[in-house]
Amino acid sequence: MTTTTPTRHHTVVDSPYGPLTLVADDGVLAGLYMTEQRHRPPEEIFGIPDPGPFAETVRQLDAYFAGDLTDFDLPLRLEGTPFQRTVWAELRRIPYGETRSYGELAERLGKPGASRAVGLANGKNPVGIIVPCHRVIGASGGLTGYGGGLERKQRLLAFERGTDDAVPALF
Q1: Catalytic residue chosen out of the listed positions 133, 137, 156, 157
Q2: For the whole model, what pTM was predicted?
Q3: Active site residue 26
Q4: Alpha helix (H) ranges present in 10-92?
C-alpha cells in the first residue's frame, strides 16, 4: 500500500495584527501562524510558496478584519491529538465578541478538572484567529497566555468588542 504525502503550500498575508502565514495541506487550511508565535513550526515544513489555495481564506480574513464577518466557514485540516481536536472544536463554539475561561471549556468537555490540559491544547491551536483561541481567558477574567502574545490577544478581543480604538496598534 502506498501512502501519499500531502502537498503543502503557504503564503504570507498582511493583517492589522502583523503578517499571517497561511499553510495548506492539499488545498485545505492547516495553519495560520503569526510572527514570533509560540509553537510556530519551522518554516521548512510550510511547503511551496503559492497564494493559490488561499483565496477564500484571505477573503474571509479580510471580511473579519473589516468587521463584516463574525464566523468563519472554511474547511480545516487540524492535526493534533484527539483531545486537542476536541478542545479546538469547542473553541469554534465561542461566539464572536465573547470569552470563556479554561475552566468553563473543561466543564463543557465533561472534564471539570482539566483546565490546565485545555490551556495546553489551546496553546497548540494551529489555526489562530479562525479557531478563536484568543477568546479564552483566565478564571479571574484576566488575560492569560496567548501564542501570538498578550498584546495581540488584547487587541483581538477589543476589536471583537468594538473597542479596538482604545488599544494602541503594536504591529
Answers
A1: 133
A2: 0.87
A3: no
A4: 55-65, 82-91
